[in-house]
Amino acid sequence: MRLFIALAAACGVLTAPALAQEKLRPTTEAQIDYRSFRGLTGEVEAYRAERLISLADFQRMAREPGTIVLDARSADAYAQGHIEGAVNLPFTDFTDQSLRAALRDPGVRILIYCNNNFSNNAAPVVLKRVELALNIQTFINLYGYGYRNVYELGDVVDFNDPEVGWVRGLDVR
Which CATH number is associated with domain 33-168? Predict the structure, then answer.
């Protein structure tokens, strides 16, 4: 597009006001930084690997003061069912402000889980593609927003298992 504009300007097809208008359009470079995201994912990879925990540890830690179980699935999925005591903040709503409101202290211990932690592959935990499991994006984003005391459920469980502490909600099929 920029090459076309440069050629059009050189040929006299575009006027100065048209060129000025093109220059005023913002680009995403200032607001979307893929290179930094790639660096962040590399930094998080080894860190995350050390913070995958068993269901037993997840449940034990969830009962300890200063711990928040975060469910980053959609509000609808959360309403249909979730791990008891979990706080819902949909991943798509993550911002500095929303995270601060939901989690308060960046030093709080956060436990995360998502659809791919369940073997049921039924609503409300239908499996995502393994390379796109929400656990990954949630962990990277929490870390990137400065929440470093994050642990992730490392087991695949059945939400019908009483040990999981699943709370059934609306319209579970």
Answer: 3.40.250.10
Q: Could you tell me which of 69, 51, 29 has the C-alpha nearest to residue 136?
A: 51
DSSP SS3 for 56? helix
Token readout for 84 is 């008891």
Residues of the chain with CATH 3.40.250.10: 33-168
**Where does 50-159 have alpha helices with state H?**
55-62, 75-80, 96-103, 134-144
Which pLDDT tens digits describe the chain residue by residue (173 residues)?
Answer: 454 444 445 555 555 555 555 667 778 888 999 999 999 999 999 999 999 999 999 999 999 999 999 999 999 999 999 999 999 999 999 999 999 999 999 999 999 999 999 999 999 999 999 999 999 999 999 999 999 999 999 999 999 999 999 999 865 44
* Helices 16-24/2-10 angle, 10° precision: 160
